[in-house]
Amino acid sequence: AHARVSRRVTVIVDNLRSIYNVGSILRTADGAGLHHVFLCGITPTPDHPKVAKTALGAEKAVSWSYHPNALTVLAAERAAGAAIWALETRRDAQPLGPGLAPGNAGLTLVIGNENAGVDPAVLALADRIVCLPMRGVKRSLNVATAFGAAVYLITEAILAAPATSADDAAHH
Known about the structure:
Alpha/beta knot; alpha/beta; disordered C terminus; 172 residues; 7-stranded parallel beta sheet
C-alpha cells in the first residue's frame, strides 16, 4: 500500500487555457493524493467534455471546484493556515527538493497561465516562490509536466519530513 499524504495539500490552477493541461493536472492531483483542486479564472472545468476525456475519470476521483478569482481562494486557504507556494520560473525562486517541506498546517501550491505564468498579484502574496531545478538548455517545462514533477517532489518531502516540522509561514 502507498503512504497517504497526511498534511492537506491543494492546488490553485489559475487562468490555464489548455483543456488538455487541465485534464492532465486533475489526473496528477488524484495520483499524488491532493486534497482539492481549485480551478480559477479562465481555466476550463471538467464540465467541458474534452477535460473529462483527458482526465480519464480523475475528475470524479479528486475533489475540485471552480472560482472566478484565485485571490479569493488564496485568502481563504491562508486563513485556514496553509502555506502558499507559487510555482514559477524566476531567478529568485527556491528549487524544490529533499528537505523542502511545508509545515504541519498544509500547503496550497499555485500554478499559473501557460504563457504569462503566475499572476503578479498572487506572487506578491505567496509565502514562497518555488521552481524545479532545470539542468538543461531550456528554462521551463509545460505547466502540467511542471506541476506533476513539483507535486511529487512536495508530497515526497512531506512523507519524509517529521510530523513536528516547523510551520512555513514566514515570507521568503
